[in-house]
Each structure stands twice: as structure tokens, then as C-alpha cells.
């Protein structure tokens, strides 16, 4: 293999920067974007689609040998998974995969590929795997945004913990770090707000925009009054549908989604509120902003005047007296933006918390192992770098230190301690930079917290404090400017920071009156968000509202003691503890050019990344060093099986015997541990696998021998029993023959002794009929032992029949066991029928009848019998006999297939193995009439109708139609009255007049309907158009925002004001012309 195309750079004969760059460049031009440095993967972002991730490729990298396939990110996933199971160097142990690189280098896509492959490796066809895969697109929508460096830049960090028991995934947890909330209210030139705002504006239908109170996107200041092209809007619309489906798949309820979208719409409306002073110097909302204030209040579920008071003044209580301190215009705008940032941050934190709640293992397991995947913001150096960039670059410094510690520090220290001959490799140690940030009491973050504690301190004071404290530090540079600025020399280069806003962002305070206002919101989600507490790592911890009523103030005050910087430092500490306790795998992502174009390679940019990542030194230490360094005891316990000897001690001599038998080369032996190259793990794993295969063959043959011996024994017993039966049958026949001959002899003797016949009177009783030969006379039978029933034909039975024959001695135990199974089946069937009647019947019945494709609770065999003469594409749906769910039976070309339909906690229907949730079974069927069902991509064509058209064929469906048709509307009304502002319950639909006309409705219910109708009529605008009435009536089954009528009125007022000012502008332009 040529030097320039080597798949493992650690095997290069000559090593320098030029050869390293040539090797990567040559492979990149050949679309080989992955390269190894020992066990470290280099991934170059191609900025285009490559056919490297298809299902066939994924299957190749399952339990593969690294040397037989080219480098791939799937190989890293497989190595981490096998190591977690204990199939490689160590026993079962937690693993972590660290993905690092610049912004735009491809870290987020790499994370998605790793997740997908790990789910393929542990595939157990469970819905949990699909839910985990839906987490990434959901978090991307709310946490990613377009920047000048990356169109899909992560504006937060996440550490995904996948939890396994043996080989199956049992749960997952997301840890999020430092969301860039300031992006909600401000974006620099060439950047955008978070994706979800554009997805929502582009994907929501006109009817839904009326519901949420959304207008023309160019009106919103928080997205810079800009939108996108038609092509981009189409993409955003598709993305919005994907986000909604991801929320359905993970398990979000419909009302939660509506409340969340309404809050996002309220954030956009809030940004359009402007202020102007009055004659008394108290601020008021501008005339153009009055409608936006009403809209924001309705969308947040609060009173308009209370929201205005929170914006223009701060209320404090001194000695029992309330004092209002009115804001200046700048302070009011800051308060407005602060509300928007906090509200969005709380929504994002709630999404992560909800995901963790839904993906938590349902059962308690003692032996769970983890694979962690770290996808954190890349190193950033913009034209203007703010507080967020300081925290992001600190996180990257911490990751670089972890890499250096694991690759360089630990190894070279152990070489020296264990007496291994080693020439020290120098590397760029960034520990002094971390000390500059994190040292106490004199560190950048410590000084920042110190200045944040003083209300009168300014950003300029903070920079002056830094200049005086770190003037002589080699990694700190003083910047002479009228702006508060300073520079840090990071491991990746020099970055200049603008400290404007540092103190305010670090404090991240919420005025108490704003928090109290939102806690009392009629929107349950908003109330929960602001009643929640914040952990030491900055994580949102929602709690029951009832539990917080007594301690809201205490929790609020205690959480405010920690600044954003302190929370971020603590979260990094916790993250490092998890990573140091796990076995790491590294992926270094490289950005080929800054213009985000495919097939373009900037040698200068790549060389900069290779240098500050220390890849040249990494190659050298991977080539010459020993990456695997187990203790004698650990190695002997793991590989003692290679000696094939019992009771082997775990000492140095045993290790040496193992290595001599394994014929390994280039290893070293220290005082207490062994030193191996990175490829030794795979060589030993092959030897273990070979022995495991041999053990499997031995077990197979031994079991074969045991089963065959048992079978022969049973056959011999059967033959013996057969001979015994034949012998008994022969003896019985012999006895019958002798008895028959004896009877005949007695009859003959009686006839000979009789005299000549004399006429006698006719006997009243007829002469006895001769008995058949097989019947024994009563006299003889009374004295003979019981004879087994004769069996004239006995063949050599199968093993199962033989077992049944042997177990004939215990008929009572079998019957009891069978009775218990029958009872259990009946109980499960009754429970399932009860579940169907109570929760599903009204959802399935349409127009007073079940659909033709619905066949009730029938068995698998019955379903297949119905499909026998049906054409391919025919289908039916049946209720599961032993579980709460459904089964879709499909007639394929060669056989019938049965697809399980899961009923999720949020009421959605999902075919097991699919990644799309449906609101009803009807929606599911309509969707799969055009989109095939995985993995065979079979499309539903013709429903399998029931045999009888007048009434259902199946008895469990006979009475359900009548019950549901009579009481459906009454139950809806009763349920609607009970659903009052609960977090997880859907909004009650408006009651129609048809309920009162139903003859089955009792008078009491009619009065309830009339009262509710009158109450709702007061809140509904009188001047609705026909289309608007249709929106409200046709979608009455779906949840609505709590103050929907108020939102509608505010939207009308905004449109009228916009039209008024537009007319005035046109008039003035006409006069000027």
C-alpha cells in the first residue's frame, strides 16, 4: 500500500507534517474521509452526500475485524459496543465516545451516525430504539442555528448516555450544557435564530397560525424581520413535520405541544413590543405595539396589564410597603429581552427533562452499563466573541486536556514508573490555560463571579481587574481599546473577547414579579417552567406545582446563588468525572475549508487543525507507545482461558505463559502491568473468539450426544413396552381360547348326559346367546386381574409422543397446569377487552360502525385463514389477545406477515420498527397506503372485510357499537368538564348544539350543555367568518391555547394597526410624489 493512501497513519514509515497532510489530502480526493491513527479516528467533513452509510455498509461493520474493512465511524461504534459487553480487552465497562473539532467539522452528523449504528448493533425490535433515534432531530430543532461557520451549528452541548443490560438498550439520558439563549433576541450578520422558529413559521398551516397567533414572518424583530426563499420554506415545512413526529414518537402529549408552540409564538410577539415615555416620565407601549402586547399576554396566558407592569417597572417590598421603581426605555427593553431568553431557555430545559423522563428505564436494573456520546460545541473564533464563546472555548480546552491526559500524560508517566525504555514525546500541554480560567481565588471565572456580586460593577471594571491580575500571564493579552476587551491564547489560537454584557449574562437574574406572574399563568406548561428549580449544573428540574407552593421563594433564592459561570464549571466537572471513569474512544473531526463547499481542501486550514489538535504527536505516540496497559491480575483473569488449565493464579508468571502461548510480539512487561500496542487487543480477541467457537462446537456435540442417548433410551423403553404389551395381549388371547374351549366342553358333556327329548312347556326365557370371544364371562372376569386395553398397532413414536407416554402417570398435574394456563389466557383476554371498550372503541368506530378492516380479537391462525384466498396487499387489523395493542396482518406474496401496533402513552399509534407516529388507526392505514412498511416496504392495498355486512362477525364487537353510539357524546361532555388546566390532559373541545338535541341525553345533561354553551359564547368573537368558524368547530377535538379568543382579537388588532400605518405611509408617499 502506498504511503499516501495508508488507512492507518500510525504505520507511516516517515512522519512529518508534510507527509501527514499529503496522506489526508490524497484520501480526501478519493472520497476516503475516514482515517485511523491507531485506534483514533480522523473524520474530514466532505460537505456532500457519500454512499457510506447504507444498510449494507452498516451490516458489514457489525462484529467485524478492523484490518479487513476500511476506516469508518461505524467501526468506532462497534468497538465501543463490544468493549461495553466485555468482548475486547477488558471486562464489561462503561464507554464514552468523544467527538471534537471546530464548528462546522461535522460533529453533529457524526453523533447521529454513531447513535444509528449502536441502535442497529443492539437491535431488539423495540420501540425504545426508535425513540432514542428521534431525540437528535428534536434537540437540533430547538438547540441548533445557522452561524457564519456552520449552517447547523450546535448552540449547546450534550452528553448522551445510552444504558444497556447485556446487549439490549434499556434507557437513555441527555445532559445539556450552556444553551446560547442570547441568540433568541440577537443574531449577528449572516446568522439566524434557532431553527424551530423558522420551522414553525414555514410548516404551520394557515389554520394553525390562526390558533397560535402567528402573522407574516417578516414582521418579527427577533428573526431580524427576515425570512427565506421558497426553497428554504419548503425545507422548513418538511422539518417542522419531522419535529412534530419526533415529539409524538418520544411521547409528548398533544396539549404539551400546543402549549409549547404557543409560548414560542408569545416570544416572537414579545420581541415586537416597543416603548416610549409619557409626560409623567413613565413608559408606555407605543401605538404600533399595543396589539403585540395583547397577543403576547394571551399567548403566555397572563393579564395584559400585569405583563406591562413587569416590563416597565420593578416592585419591591420594604417594611411591608410596596415600592414601584420605573424603568428607563433601555431597562424596559432589557426586561423584555430577558423574559424572552429565560422563557426559551426554560422551554429547552423542559424538553430535555421530558425526554429523560420518557426514556428512563421502566424497571430497576442492577447491572446497567453505559455508552456515552459527547457532542459539544466546537472551538469558535468569530469577528466578535462574547460570553458564550468564552464558555464554549473553555469546554474545548477541557476536552483537549482530557485527550492529552489520556493519550500522553497517563502513558508516559506509567512508562517511567514501570521501568519501560521510552523517549519522552513532548506535546502542547494546556493545563496552564485551564488554570487561567478555573483557578481559585484568582481565575477569570472567579473574578467574574466576584464582580457579578456587586450591583454597581461594570464590564469595564471586570476587564480592568483581569488586566491587573493576569498582566504577566503568557496566555493572557491586554487589549488597548475604548471597549472592554481582552485576549486569550488558547490551544487552538488567539481569541479576542468583547466583555460587553459579561456581568449581566453571568448573573442571568429573573425579576421576582416576572417569575410570580408566569407561575400564575393559565397555561400549565409556562407555570411549570417557572415554578421549577435549577440544579447546580444549570439543569431544569420541574416539580409538582402543589409541592412548590410552600417553598417557591426559598428554592428561588437558593438557586440564584450560583451564577451561570459557576453552573457551567460544575457541569464540566461532573462531565469530566463521568468520562474519566469510562473507557474513551476519540473521533477528531476536521473541517476542509471555511466556505462549506464540497471537494475543496484548504491545506493551510487543515494544517492549523492538525497542529493545535496535536495529531502529529498523537501519531508518534500511537506508533511507538503502548495504548493498552492492563495490570497483571486483570490480564490474567481476562485471558487465563487461553492456557486451558483450571485454577490458574493471577500473577506475572501466568501472564507470561499466556503471552508465550499467544505468540504476540512487541509487548513489554513492567513491574506491575503489561504494555501492549493498540492492535494487540484485536489479536487476543481473535484467540478468545476462536476458543469460544470451539467451546460452542463442543457444547453442540455434547448436547447432541446427550439428546441422542436420551432418545435411544426412550426408544428402547418404548420397544420394551411394546413387547410387554404384545406379550400381555398374547396371554389374554390364550386365556380366552382356553376358557372358550372349557365352556364348549361343559356344554357337550351336558348334551350327552341328557335323556331323549320329552315334550316340555315352552320356556319363557330365550336361550342365551353365545358371547363374543373378546368378552370374558362375569364369573371369570370377577377373578382375573385388570387387563390393559389392547393396542393392535404400535409404531415407533416421535420424541414428543414418547415423552407424553412416559408422563401418562401424572395426568392430574398436567390437567391442573393446563387449567391454570387457560385461566390466565382468559384473564388476559378479558383485560384486553376491557381496555378496548374503555379506551379504544370510540376511536375505532366511525359513523356508528367498525371499519371493514377491523376484525376484533381474533387469533393469528384465524387471521391467516381469512387471508388464504386474498390477493397480495390485503390487510386487516385485530386486537391483541394478550396485550393492550393491535396487530396488522398483511397478505404478502409468499406468506402472511404480522406487524405489531404499539399504543404509546400519549395516545399515538406506531407500528413496531417504524419511525412515524399516527393520531389514529385510520391515519396509520391511510399513510401506509402510499408509504411501505419497513423492512419489506409493503403497501396496504385492499382491506379484508368481514363476512357479514349487517353486523360484526365477532361477538366481542356486537354490543360495543350500540354502547358507543348512544353514550359517545355524553362521555365527551363529561370528560370535557373534568379537563381543567391539567398539564397532561388535552384541552376540552367546544360543546356543540347537537348534544342537546340527542334524545338519549337526560335533562340534567342538557342543562349542563346549555350552561357551557352560553359561557363559551361570551368568549367567542361575534364577527367570525365562515372559515374561522370551521376552524373552531372542525378542530374541536384538538387542544387549543387557553386564551385562544384573546389571541384572535389581538391578531385582528395588529392587522388593523398594520393596515392603518401602511395606508398613512402610502398617503404620505403620494403627497410627496
From TrEMBL:
Domain SH2 intervals: 853-944
One MF term in the entry's GO annotations: actin binding
Single GO biological process annotation from the record: regulation of actin filament length
Compartments reported by the entry: Cell projection; Cytoplasm, Cytoskeleton
Family (UniProt): Belongs to the TRAFAC class myosin-kinesin ATPase superfamily. Myosin family.
Species, as recorded: Erpetoichthys calabaricus (Rope fish)
Alphabetical UniProt keywords: Actin-binding, ATP-binding, Cell projection, Cytoplasm, Cytoskeleton, Motor protein, Myosin, Nucleotide-binding, Repeat, SH2 domain
Chief location bin: other
Entry keyword annotation includes Nucleotide-binding: yes
Myosin motor domain segment(s): 4-692
Region of interest: Disordered: 726-774
Ranges where the record places region Actin-binding: 572-594
Protein's recorded name: Myosin-IIIb-like
Binding site for ATP: 101-108
